[in-house]
Specification:
The chain is about 30% helix and about 25% strand. The chain has 19 helices and 29 strands. Strands 1, 2, 3, 4, 5, 6, 15, 16, 17 and 18 form a ten-stranded mixed sheet that branches. Strands 8-9-11-12-14-13 form a six-stranded mixed sheet, with helices on one face.
């Protein structure tokens, strides 16, 4: 009887224990569900996500005038000048668009820095950019190659400024490894740069992985010698796998590697859903971007591709220079898979319109607004008041800098687009004193040649090196003499061109020179394209036929100073304005150079010239840099026959 009672009691005890365990498990599961589950959040429901993004604003903080083709009420579109872009408009557009959607991410895909005087002439390097970025409060920012233009120490200084505000924007790059001595090594700058970040929207975890273009950053920017960049695909997959191991199943690649490379890398990855890109300054969107004169889109917005598992990936980019805010809407199902993506590249413009130099009438203004709205991409946006206020002190500093004396020029740096004596096509451009002296008739303009030499020397000091440079004669606008201000230097190069580096063969070098001379001396030619080069010299016979005008081409060895014949089979590094690199002024040979042999260095022409001036010997009387004519042997036109 006692044994039987014990057995019954034991069975009851086991039953109660099982019931207790079951209740505890149920309670734990309920608690976990209430808290959003594991690192993956509540993955059992769909998500509608809006991504607002920019890239490559390159210290372009002020708006600029832009001419568009729009209807002003007549039958045909007309040229309409309008104030466009600028960071205060970016801030306003992001704020207004964010207010229209419940679940929003604000992303910057890199290259915030370098490109205008706001970067390094309006305070500490990048101070103005950090201040304006902090009016947006991006959810993530990936490092572009130009973030390294002032080395790792300079980058840390910028990130210190970015961290000063309340935003604390996460800074990302999965493939950078900071060297042992780097100011950004994790041992001394913990948390400054992370491979990825995880954000939560509607209880859902979203992983954002940063990526920086590897070879270009190492070759054409200035990271510390022992700071390295891993293969982009391998680094991205490693970080995606780490996030998926934490049950994060919505992955955005915030990439600064370029549109074409984005598509290649994404196709080799598993687990990526969206690529928000930068670096290639790619305009994406409908054909109305072309017909309205905004630009030529390289693909659809968004561009839809598949990853290596055949799953959909949505790829976007938002052009350049604070002109476009991309708005991407992504639908995820309960399993975290993309089911749909749509969007708009919003081109930001103001509402003051000018036609033929006159303000639009009320009727014309109404018609223009309707025409702009019909494009589906032009967005009339009033600049953000807080961002405008944040910009003002930096704007004031740039104005002060423009008045700053930056050099002394004791002997006039004559301006002449093309050589030639009395009666030649550009003879009257030079001053009477320069013409009387006669050197411009033999070799062309001193200031044009000095700019080409400046590109060469600064490229070799800061931007990965160059063998030769090219500057069109017409791109240099004024001579210099006496005490020179920064504003005058900008007048020398007023068009705001960025510099590219192209790898071209010696045969292409000759083709480039022949193109420039054909654009001057061929049918319908003009003086502007005449080629001025650094590190390269030649004889010119303007009377000869196309293909035969250039002879005795020589390249200078920078180490020895010796000149040697151009090797038509050798590859040379050419530092050149973006305008000419893409075929401007008739340089067809350069336009044909494939993408694999061209890099967008992204530095402003006038800023390169200012950097060159800063390095010159100082005038003993004023303490200012002394800007003088170059030695005759460095002039690119060695002899000229007309």
């Amino acid at each position: 009887m006692t044994m039987r009672l014990w057995a019954i009691q034991k069975q009851l005890h086991r039953a109660l224990h099982r019931a207790r365990v079951g209740l505890l498990a149920l309670a734990a599961a309920s608690a976990l569900a209430a808290c959003g589950g594991s690192d993956g959040g509540d993955q059992a429901k769909p998500l509608e996500l809006t991504i607002l993004h920019i890239n490559d604003h390159h210290s372009t903080l002020e708006s600029r005038s832009k001419t568009l083709k729009l209807s002003a009420g007549g039958a045909a579109a007309v040229d309409v000048a309008v104030d466009a872009g600028g960071f205060p408009r970016v801030a306003a557009a992001i704020s207004e668009l964010a207010a229209q959607s419940p679940h929003v991410l604000k992303l910057h895909a890199g290259d915030a820095l370098t490109g205008t005087l706001y970067f390094n002439r309006a305070g500490a390097d990048g101070e103005a950019d950090a201040a304006l970025m902090n009016t947006v409060c991006f959810d993530a920012f990936t490092l572009g190659n130009h973030e390294f233009d002032k080395g790792d120490t300079g980058l840390k200084g910028f990130l210190d400024l970015l961290r000063k505000g309340a935003c604390k924007t996460p800074v990302l790059s999965a493939n950078v490894q900071f060297g042992a001595g780097s100011a950004l090594n994790a041992a001394r700058a913990a948390g400054y740069v992370s491979p990825s970040t995880v954000v939560e929207r509607d209880g859902q975890k979203i992983g954002i992985v940063g990526l920086t273009i590897a070879q270009k950053t190492k070759a054409s920017s200035s990271p510390d010698a022992d700071t390295t960049f891993q293969d982009e695909t391998a680094a991205a997959q490693r970080e995606i796998d780490a996030l998926r191991a934490r049950n994060v199943n919505k992955i955005i690649l915030l990439s600064h590697i370029g549109y074409d490379y984005d598509k290649q890398v994404a196709a080799r990855l598993s687990g990526v859903d969206v690529v928000v890109g930068g670096d290639s300054h790619t305009l994406l969107g409908p054909n109305t971007l072309t017909t309205t004169g905004v630009g030529s889109p390289a693909g659809a917005y968004p561009t839809r591709i598949t990853d290596k598992d055949g799953k959909p990936v949505c790829v976007v980019q938002a052009w350049e220079y604070a002109q476009v805010v991309g708005e991407l809407k992504v639908s995820f199902n309960a399993q975290g898979e993309v089911t749909q993506c749509t969007g708009t590249p919003h081109v930001l413009i103001g509402d003051s319109f000018t036609l033929g130099g006159k303000a639009a009438t009320d009727a014309e203004k109404a018609a223009i607004k309707a025409s702009a709205a019909a494009t589906g991409v032009l967005r009339i946006t009033t600049p953000s008041a807080p961002a405008t206020t944040a910009l003002q002190p930096f704007k004031d500093r740039v104005a002060v800098f423009n008045k700053t004396q930056v050099a002394v020029v004791p002997q006039e740096l004559c301006s002449r687009r093309v050589p030639g004596g009395v009666g030649s096509v550009d003879y009257s451009r030079s001053s009477a004193a320069c013409n009387a002296e006669g050197s411009v008739s033999l070799r062309g303009g001193d200031i044009q040649q000095l700019v080409a030499q400046a590109y060469l020397e600064v490229a070799n000091e800061k931007y990965g090196g160059a063998d030769i440079t090219l500057q069109s004669g017409g791109g240099v606008r004024i001579p210099l003499q006496g005490t020179v201000t920064a504003a005058q230097v900008i007048q020398v190069l007023p068009f705001g061109n960025m510099l590219f580096r192209l790898d071209i063969t010696g045969q292409e070098v000759k083709g480039m020179l022949e193109d420039g001379l054909e654009a001057v001396y061929g049918a319908g030619g003009s003086t502007g394209p005449y080629p001025y080069t650094g590190g390269l010299r030649y004889d010119v016979n303007a009377k000869a036929a196309f293909g035969s005008r250039v002879g005795n081409i020589e390249v200078r060895n920078p180490a020895t100073g010796a000149w040697g014949a151009l090797d038509t089979a050798k590859t040379y590094k050419l530092f050149v304005l973006s305008f000419n690199a893409t075929g401007g002024d008739g340089y067809k040979t350069l336009a044909a150079v494939p993408a694999a042999r061209r890099l967008d260095i992204g530095v402003l022409d006038a800023d390169v010239f200012l950097s060159y001036i800063d390095k010159q010997a100082k005038d003993t009387a004023t303490g200012l840099p002394l800007l003088q004519r170059l030695p005759v042997e460095l002039y690119s036109t060695r002899s000229f026959a007309n």
